[in-house]
Automatic annotation (TrEMBL):
Belongs to the CobD/CbiB family. This is Cobalamin biosynthesis protein CobD. It is a multi-pass membrane protein. It comes from Microvirga tunisiensis. It is found in: Cell membrane. GO terms for molecular function: ABC-type vitamin B12 transporter activity; threonine-phosphate decarboxylase activity.
Amino acid sequence: MPLSDSLLILSLALAAEAAFGYPHRLYTWIGHPVTWIGWLIKGLDRVSNRENWSFSWRRAAGILALLILVTVTGLAAWMLERFLLPLGTVGVGLLALLSSTLIAQRSLHEHVAAVSKGLREGGLGGGRSAVSMIVGRNPQSLDGAGVSRAAIESLAENFSDGIVAPAFWLALGGLAGAALYKATNTADSMIGHRTPRHEAFGWAAARFDDLVNLPASRLSALLIVSAAALNRDTSPRGAWQAVRRDASHHRSPNAGWPEAAMAGALGLRLAGPRIYGDVQVEDSWMGNGRAEATADDIERALALYRTACALLFALAAALTLLIWIIAR
């Protein structure tokens, strides 16, 4: 797909998803592309991840499963592109709507806003219940500040994984590029864990996800720094300093970049030691501000997030216009 077409489709997809999201009725009726990808991953895990196989054989099986996943997903998306693009304006519009299902601006905002609402209306219990929908850590181990930090961390990380990364690969590779990214990211979230069942089988998914998220995580940090310069009560200098000082010390090669930018912009400390299930995971702090985050800080983070999403749309639209002017 020509870059001019993919950038136009990206601009339309970002606008459509921000305005409408993914209708709940449609989800109830046919599910969601991520759930379809998830069904394939579950099937591959069930069939090819045998517990009686050696570590090496299970790692090889995981590599093969990932190749099958990206081939099936990429081929299906590429065929849709080949069918729809010749339809002109109608085809571009349909591709934009399909692409919008792979971006999660609206749903991420709603889930994080629900944590703030839960804390305000239901106290600690309400906050814990809402945050358990978006993080993997044990919510019962979190106090009010921990709930708020977890929500802000999830917002920052998923801004990269759920919005900027699919947008980046959509711009470079069209619908097929975004679908391939989404398949990889979903595989990492489902099987890319260091558990007895998935440490070997999910190795390829986890490593490949780290690779494909690398450019988006850096771009996400830049967008948050830029958004901090436009919002009230946020510090672009603090965001930039936190990225330079802390991002590379995060246990994830990518999550530290948007988390550090968010922490520095808001004057907070994010990440650090936390509990998943019954296991405490050690990690470096992102930012050097206060750790006592509140529901008000969640609202500040959401305002920063909305500005960063607007900047992403502006960047896509500006590049689309620039290519159109050059091509004339």
